Structure formats: C-alpha cells, structure tokens
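Protocol step 4 of 6: structure prediction from sequence.
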Amino acid sequence: MSITSYPELVTFGGGVGNYPYYLQVSRGLVDGHERVFKFGYNGEIQNVEETIWDTGGIYVYPSTALAMTATSASGATDSGVQITIQGLDASYNEVSEEVTLNGSGTATTTQTYLRVYRAFNSGSTAAVGNVGISNGGTTYALVAAAEQQTLMALWTVPAGYTAYLFQLDVTAFTEQNNKVATIRMVTRELNGVFRTQSKFDMDAGVYSQTIQAPQPILEKTDVEFRAVASSSNADLKLAAAFDIVYIENTAP
C-alpha cells in the first residue's frame, strides 16, 4: 500500500480506490498509523480541580511498572467475570491482558503496568459490582457496574510514536444557577511537569474543537483533561472525549 493523498484519502494499488484516511487507520490498513478514542466522565466537580475520570480527584500515575489487581465490590458474586486491562509497560510499550475474577472476586495480572488508561468487561457475564484496578491501595482504573467500562479522559503516547490530537469534545451540566467550569488539557513529557495546552470556560453546554494542524505530542507524554468549578456547591457533571492518531516515528 502507498499513501498518495494525505490526510484526506488513502489510495490502494491495483485500482482498488480511494478511502477516507481516518477510516483506513481505524481499519488497521495504514502501516504505522494507529487511532485511539478516549472518553471520560466525572459526575461531581466542585471548586477543587479534578481529573475527568470516574473515580474523582486528580489521577495518580504509577512511578514504576506494577502488577494490577482487579477487585469486585461484590466479591464472589462476580466470580468468572473477565476484565481486560490496557496500558503501557515499563518501557512505554502497549500492553493488554485479560484476567478472570476468581471465587473471591479478584484477579492479579501477570503483566506489569507503568500506565493504565482503559479497562473493560471483555466476557459474556456482566459484573454486578464495581471492579477496581489497583495496587497498594491506589486505584488506577474503575470498571463501574453501570458502564462495564472505564471512563478516563487520559492517555499516554507509547514509545516510538508521535501523537496528533484531531478532535476534542467537552460537555458540562449542572442544575445549579450561574456556575461555570474551567477545563484544561494538560500534558507531561517524560521527566517533565504537567503543562496547560488548552484552557477554556463553559457553563452548561457543549464545547467542540476540530484541529486541522495538530501539535505533535511526543512519545511517553501523558495527556489528561481536568476541570474545576466556580464554587463549592456547583455540582458540575463533566464529560470529555478526544480523538488521537498516533504514528510510528519510522513511518512515512
């Protein structure tokens, strides 16, 4: 396959035809090009900044690669439930593992994770209880029973890739009057600090941005969305989603 029109169309040899670039990336037909769609939700944000994820507070990243234990709040009731955990290993390479909850409703990975950015029920039996993904008392992901999937507006660029953010969408809602959310997209390069890359205010409504010429996000960079409300009783509900194409550094 050769790319003769980028990024709108991808042309295949042999007269097969032209197809939208993003569709072909999603189909896995563009060598060295990958797509990730991340989405998160935080159902109660007040006047202290929190990550837009389903556990609340500012997300804490592992400092070293750790084995993760999946634990159901319903214990033995969820024996046999299958949970897939996705993230990065100690070298920032993508890693994924499916575990099956045992008779006590727990399971520990054989893989170790420096980053966990998604987990979901990958079996045929729904979990009755919330399934936390943790190590040493710190929760790195939560598969809520109502969702069977994590809701985490954060991601880390794998080793050997550069990422490009093409679309972001944020929704805010509250039943309180005159309350405002301040949302930040922050990134942290390897051995760096979190820096604001985008910041905007909104009350109830939707903010969408399509980025025509995205800034490169380097390998091993953490990407995260955070929000804070204008008062202690704002009761803001925030959802954030972002669409990224990440391209192998050796790809054309």
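Step 5 (inspection) to follow. The radius of gyration is 19 Å.
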